[in-house]
Amino acid sequence: MAVPLVDLKAQYAPLRQQLDEALGEVLEAQRFILGPQVEQLEKEAAAFLGTRHAVGCASGTDALLLALKALRLEPGDEVVVPSFTFFATAGAVWNAGLRPAFADIDGRTFNVTAGTIEAALTERTRAVIVVHLYGQMATLAPIVELCRARGLTLIEDAAQAFGARQRIDFKLLHAGTIGALGAYSFFPAKILGGFGDGGMITTADDELASRLRKLRVHGGERTYHHEMVGTNSRLDTVQAAILRVKLSHVRNWIERRNLIAEEYDFRFKKLAPDVVTPLRTPENDHGYGVYTLRVRDRDALKAGLDARGIGNAVYYPVPLHLQECFAELGYREGRLPESERAAREVISLPVYPELTEAQVAEVVAAVREAVAGA
Ligand SMILES: *Cc1c(COP(=O)(O)O)cnc(C)c1O
Fold first, then answer.
1. Nearest ligand 1 atom to alpha carbon 132
2. Could you tell me the pLDDT band of residue 221, with boundaries at 50, 70 and 90?
């Protein structure tokens, strides 16, 4: 039995009537850009996440770009980002006219720590973007403290972690609501995905929220009057209507993702040390946007999974400090060893909520067989 890495048809089937109705309403109204549906989604998402403002935009990449532009930093200012993340985290820094400074990760969680961030700070550092990779939040209390002490703005890239939570001072706080700004992606395969591209920025700061609302429509409140140079980055009405339906299911979906991840953890623990399961830290409610193993012989496991039709992916094979486009920043191999090692060893498995027991068993069997045969 083949098992795809993601199966959006399986998510659509039970929601078909609700989603078709939501889509039908938008088609009937023929209003496609922003509008009341986007405002409603922003209100509902802000309430769900427990923050003051949510601002829809065109993608997760733009969410990061607009967040950075809203900070009004100087050209050439540095922003610390993890090396081990999706390209957009660093690409947005570059496209905002700023310089990425790469931080290493903790190899057990795949996330940056206060220590790895501190090692990347220079005189010119003005902000830090933490990424909650694979759906588990980076441990934020010490990072918030470090940023406060050094006068740095903290942005959370929560593109893979919509709905993930962390206990801080006896409060359970959502990913993206702890730093000054949070960025989310509604790319179809993310925990909360639309029918195309979409994104959102959250903030508790009224001034930043007001700037973000201008920046997404070319930097002005009144049409044809521009206080800043923004861009066109609006959330489509169609996406907002779809996302409003899906938002009401996200908590259940995350629970289901956790059950599947627990089953994998249990089954794969026996394969140590050839296979290492992802560490879930006690303060976190993991979102399991992605379930990622580290393996000694990744090529062998990948070949075994491919042969049995089991969807898998390597997020990400090249750490960003070694990407060709950032060569001029002068990073050499060996500089960020944990990021480099993770890039060689990680492989991700299907973890979407609609997976059946039989499919999970199939994935487990395929991994076991491939590891035993290696
Ligand atoms: C997906 C993703 C983004 C970008 O989101 P898009 O909606 O695809 O532009 C940014 N950062 C991380 C960590 C992501 O996984």
1. 13
2. confident
